[in-house]
Amino acid sequence: MxxxxxxxxxxxxxxxxxxxxxxxxxxxxxxxIYSMGAGLVPLPLIDVAAVSTxxxxxxxxxxxxxxxxxxxxxxxxxxxxxxxxxxxRVGASLIKGIPVVGFLVGGVSLSIxxxxxxxxxxxxxxxxxxxxxxLDNFNIDAWRRAYEQQLERGKEIAARLQKQQNxxxxxxxxxxxxxxxxxxxxxxxxxxxxxxxxxxxNELRERGILTDEEFQAKKSSLLQQI
Length: 226
Hints:
By secondary structure, the chain is an all-alpha fold. The chain has helices at 5-38, 46-65, 72-82, 87-95, 101-130, 140-175, 178-181, 190-206, 212-223. The protein is globular.
């Protein structure tokens, strides 16, 4: 059987495409978890800004993977047009203004919605960039419909990831409990660490150790590390 040059080139192209897709999906998963942590920020509207920071980081990373020029200003504009007025996200954020119950209800809702939105953004940009698209030829109207479709799938993904994160935390606490194991071990992952740090900062804020301004500054510093 004679192997044609075209067959070799097609195989190499497909291999690179598959590798890029795997790397891109890994980036989406990490940023979905990051955004769920950002969605726990207990201040109305500030949480939406925190999630947007995570989503911009994801768009930048996807552009790197697909060797597409990234512009912060263009990225912000596209993100605002694509996601901008998602009523459910903003509504969940505003619910947090209600003392005690507001944070419990709004926080959980926004956390899942933040993850779902980030998943949808990621899938839309993967599809666009795989088709050799760029930030300059991004069709907002067409991709907004795709975003809405991916958002429903994203809710399932975010809920599953949240469950996995909770299971990891429970397992980690059990492993680090000297009474349960006899010895203390420490196993961490960058994604888990960021998620946990935001939650710990929130606990300090709730106890009055950190002011809202200090909490926001430290949280923003963590998100910049993505």
